[in-house]
Amino acid sequence: MPDREAVAVFDESGLVVVWTRAAERLLGVERAAILGRSVTELLTLVDVKDLTEGVTVGPVGEGDPPGRWGLWPAGPLPGGIRSGVLDAVFTQSPVGLHVLDADMRVLRINSAAAGMRGTSERDIVGRPFSEVYSRFGSGETEDALREVLASGVPLFERRVAGYPLVDPAREHVFSVSVFRLEDDLGRPLGLVASSVDVTARDRARERLAVLHRVHARMGLRLDAVQCARELVRAVVPTLADVATVALTSAELHGPGTDAASGDATLRCVAGWPPEADEALEVGAALDLPDCDARGSAPYVEEPDGAGPTLVVPLTARGVLLGVAHLSRPRRPDPFEDDDLRLAADLAAHTSVCVDNARRYEHDHAVALALKGNLVRSGRTGRSTMETAHRYLPSGLGTGAWFDVLPLSGNRVALAVGHIAGVGPDAMAAMVQLRSAVQVLSTLDLDPHDLLARLDDTTRRLGEERAAAGTGGPLTAQCVYAVHDPVTETCAIARAGDQTVLVGHPGGGGWHGLLEEATVLGGEGPPFAADEIPAPPGSILVLLSGRADPGEPELAALRARLAGADPPRPLNASDLHDLPLDQAAVLVARTRALVGEDVASRQVPPELTAVSEARRWAVRLLEDWGLRETAFAVELIVSELVTNAIRHGIPPIHLRIIRNSADHTVTCEISDTGTAAPHLRRARAADESGRGIFISGELSDRWGVRWTERGKTVWTETSYTP
After folding, report:
1. Which of 246, 248, 265, 250 is nearest to 326 (CA)?
2. CA distance 199 to 265
3. What angle do CA 582, 588, 590 make, to 5 degrees?
4. How many CB atoms lie within 10 A of CB 517?
5. Is the pTM here over 0.90, yes or no?
6. How far apart are CA 129 and CA 193, in angstroms?
7. Average pLDDT over all residues of the chain
8. Using omega within 30 degrees of 0 as the cis cutoff, is the peptide bond preceding 650 cis?
9. pLDDT, tens only, 191-200
């Protein structure tokens, strides 16, 4: 009878009373299928052809009840394969095998494991695991092995990295799986660990991930510095421990700098990780690499006393844009050919993104400068109105504009508009409509009449776009307001749903103006229009888009504009906090001309009244201290009054306005006739026809505006204070 415990026990009647896991493995019969059944049934369940070991049957030990029999393994059957499999695994398998006892000492390794480590089996067997595998961070690994030994739960494909003796300068990665060895009763005897060198596979996967990250994230923002930051973050730690990127002055200074100028200055713009001592400080200067001698391909430098550094020039169309330094100060691993190929791919993509960013910055700066010049408003500081504005020419502001336009009689027009859509087409349409508003404003039209003509222009431009195939239907919104400082009124018309707010002097309250109206180029009823009182100190807020007057930013603006006493000057900084969807914001505070700056009188429809009108005008200008201007104004008044008496329809009204801030004198002659004077060149023998010519020569500007009661001919003359 064998000295060891039986793996199965039969009682005196032949029933199975003990069936261990070792018996299950030995005979291929599960415990639940045989326990409590007879030995004859066992013989029917065992497939003899599948047996690889023999069994021994005999009486059990003296301590058991008499009459019991036991079953023990008897070793490999003749011609069995188990021992042959073990010999093949330990001599021919490419998978490294390590057998450890319960005390974590190495009992045996196969030839593949010895080759992976670069040592022989006799140098390893019998030594502690922590000592043999110290080059692989054995502390954490040994804890994992002891967990498998205690629990019996296998460990699969754990990554273990280190520097084996066979290749001490290069880190290798092994995939390790661990299983527990048990005796026939399931008690732990030791461990078997299999290891496969997966360095090449893991490195390839990591390099592919770096390339994917760079292609997925770089270039989303057309910013050269951001491209450099994306590169350094992507390559650490796969390609380098520390990465820095420096760009040339052309890339940093952007528009107006020649990229091919050969500036030998490189400035560090990105480094990763930021806390690394080896990383260059952002802004530090570097010498230009000798790309003529080495070409544009990446190359390796071996600094004294430090790990290798991969220098990667960033070039586009033969021009150096910058350089990336990928350093390994904390590991001796040399850069492989695959690393250089990956660096070349990254450099090519980064160079394209950096070059695109520089080109975009240049084109964007040109576009913004052009649009800023196109929308820049000129005379925004007239004495009859104080204004401030905010303009965002990019994004939603592509088709937005604003204007402050001087009109006759010291009136001022405010215009804010917005074209539907973005891009070059919207910008071109915006310029066309803004120019149309400026031209139409010179006709001194009422606001609703001006928008009606602007609507015709919008439709015509839309038809031209449709015929050229450059865009869909053209629509726009526009608010046009005219403030008269003499009558202290403001006439406003709106096409669309832009927000118009009016605040009373002294902060007495705010209210919105005008209902939503038809957009320019759209179908619908006539445009909304109104005329409101605008005493000095009234505030007008015109927005390029629709906004709720109760929005916190708008409420804060209203409080700032109306809260101070005396009123604080308007400032563009007050408008910075408004929502960004309001691309153009125009705020105005009205003023009025004082009574002594405006003088008027009725003119009888008789030619004898001309001389009296001249004398009255001269006395008025002398009272104002403008004796030097009196002669020109006297002739202008003489010609205007004469024309009104001869060609106009009474009543005739003469008005002279002094604007001390703009240093101008305005002469106006009004009658109820509709016939407009026009400039012509009189012949030498003609006795008339020179009045308007003389008036135009003596004044800076002149024109005609129509009202509900007739027309007004006006001139504006500058004087030196």
Report:
1. 246
2. 40
3. 160
4. 23
5. no
6. 12
7. 82
8. no
9. 988 888 888 8
